[in-house]
Amino acid sequence: MASLATIFGSGAMTNSIKEIEGMEVIFTIGSNTKETHPVIANRMLKAIRKGARLIVADPRKVPLVKFAEIFLRLRPGTDVALLNGIAHVILKEGLQNDEFITERTERLEGLKKSIEAFTPEAASKITGVPKEDIIKAALLYGGSRRAGIFYTMGITQHTHGTDNVNAIANLALLTGNIGRESTGINPLRGQNNVQGACDAGCLPNVYPGYQRVDMPMVKNRFQEAWKATLSDKEGLKSTEMIKSAAEGKLKALYIMGENPLITDPNIGHTTKALENLDFLLVQDIFLTETAALADVVLPATCFAEKNGTFINTERKVQLVRKAVEPPGEAREDMRIISELSVRLGYPMNYSSSEAAFEELGNLWPALAGISYSRIRSEGIHWPCPTKDHPGTDYLYKAGFPRGRVSFSAVEYIPPAELADDEYPFVLTTGRNLFQYHSGSMTRRVAPIEAHAGEPYVEISAEDASRLGIRDGLMIRVKSRRGQIGLKALITGRVSEGLLFIPMHYKEAAANVLTSDALDPYAKTPEFKVCAVKIEKINSYEEVL
Amino acid sequence: MIKVLIDGKAGAVKEGATVLEAARMLNIPIPTLCHHPKLSPFGGCRLCIVEIKGIPRPVTSCTTPVTEGMEVTTSTPALEDLRKTVLELILSDHPNDCMLCERAGDCTLQELAYFYDVKENRFAGERRIYEKKDGNPFIERDMEKCILCGRCVNACEEIQGVSAIDFAYRGFKSKICPPYEHDLNCEFCGQCVAVCPTGALTGKGWSHKGRQKDIKEVDTTCPYCGTGCGITLHVKRNEVVRVTSKESGWNEGWLCAKGRFGYSFIGSPERLRTPLIKEAAGGFREASWDEALEYAAKRLKEIKEKHGPDSIGGLSSARCTNEDNYLFQKFMRAAIGTNNVDHCARL
Questions:
Q1: Which of A128, B253, B277, B287 allows an S-S link to B291, with CB 3.0 to 4.6 Å?
Q2: Which domains does chain A have, with CATH numbers?
Q3: ipTM beyond 0.90?
């Protein structure tokens, strides 16, 4: 998201979900949409029934591939090579949108130079995708003026995630496939309110509404509004906080509704870091793995027990309504934060969640026109600056906020950790259809546990037969950071040399294995590629 | 636009619209069972029959496109008689156990039987007796209640692209089932459950949790992925007993397995009920809110004084609301005095 914001001025989906229906070409890359965003996939199927054509790029044969005209099965971590290859063909075939490029972009020459070497042959060599398919995809995407690109963590969770996003942006800029209805760049966000958490300012470098903490004018405005003295020093990103805690610099951590022990890379390292803190305060609805390490645990409310708003992946502000009373003495998060704040000498007093939302709207014009009463039956897409503004389905209709947008010359850099003789497999991680993230919610839902309650590792039939592994056999997966034991699932979804482990299962947590190598700009960990080896075992006990 | 006259009411519809769509646009009710506005027309139940001037026999309005100047009559004694006969035929093979059925009060078939006053059935006779054998934990399939309207088959194919079920056998033995009558093994999105007009398909978790009476329905937003589907929580005695989604919402009533069936964590016995403080020995003890908040505030204050505000960090949550997140970052920035605030956007 950070990289998309750097390019265009905003790090959100440029289209609304409804617009998918009007797309001519849908290009998903690094997104297992059918399993991680099933209802967005429904919308894609609807578009396909109306004649849209689908390109899927993924190292795994994800379920959406069934509906694709072109499947680009690239090697993990080679996205830049694939995207540069596609850009190369688009330029070579003259499919670029010259009018758009002249009016709204700059630095095309730099891009041209950087992708000169990425002929379909060269890109094919790096990615493993047949060159004919790269050409076909380029002709299809480049030939359309109503094409949408969709991506998720398969693009960002790499040491070169920022490069991946830049390479995607290049394609949209080359073809002018952005800034109009039913065409744009659409990062699908994986959590109900990750968009809102960013918008509300839970980022170390910006206040609510992406207003930078290191700009004196902005700081002064917030100081005035909040009647407090604020720091202009950019804060630590979550992955940096863990590192800083491990080094003994960060002394206390207040965690609300997150379970970094399961979701952060290299669990061994995260555990040590959290244990190294002087004080850990966790506010959650369950005693999660992270909460178990806390000094104080505060019982909070879940979505069904409070009023408020979420902002979904398409920038739509929607109401959350209280349906049930919380268990025991559990309290609303807003109330807990306020009471803590009062005790630290900074009074906070909100009569309702709506009062807090209004304050947020006063500080960020994009939300200023939205009120609870306006979104009672249907949400509104930001930006919505005034009370009579209908909201904004797609961004950049009137041009980019920063004027001309730059093409980025993107070099291909291999992943931080590659398969070698000792660790011959590449492991990639992600979600499956039934479980959700760290599992603190879904693993407490009986039917989901009954159906998908067991960890597994996907392995190709070729590898399995070579190593004498039967379907359902317990195997041990080892990386340089740790090892886990889990059942083998033989499937055509992964190709030879590739393994996939869903991240949800603490008893065989994928993040014991993953690398904490980070993207240098976004500080996103490389969950999608690390090197592992496998061994046969007979039961869980042997691992423990 | 094409002009049409239905029951004496004039209207104009766009080309390709069916007689049924035109009638609904004009607010003229026509009973249906197999029709679903988000699915292809099926023409199976024959309840939507109408008379069209110039056509000698009744036709199904859901599959007949409007033509210029078409004159339609939706209700005559003969049509109503035919409709009642159709209902009687369907009900002749339907368990008469509404008092036990999960869908009672929310069942199109029950509604129509009531409306057409189907008390005695002239066609009572042989019934299809099916053994329930699904082991899946999500969807209950009571195929004796299935009226073969095909909505579930269409939803599974058209909306979900899965085609896990289809019609099998012929005539009286017709039934809807997975290939080879195996156990259902699919994405368990429950779109089939959402479109079923009878009690044939229901949620396994719904059973005996409450039907219509004393149920409070609360419209809210799904707490799982970033799609943000509109959901409706059905609440009885402070418990969420069912989740549905409104067809009129932007997600058209479609959900996934998590959104539709993954709600029981809300009332989980494992929920935290009181504040906890860790004891020296390593275990937790229950504490009052005052004690826990005082203690937490004291520790944060001490650390801030000794090591400075930047020695404290805060991780906020993409699970929580905008309002929670806004307050959290304000707390970190204004009360603690640091910009060390982030959340899981990268994970």
A1: B287
A2: 2-188 (3.40.228.10), 194-235+300-381 (3.40.50.740), 241-256+267-299 (no CATH), 425-543 (2.40.40.20)
A3: yes
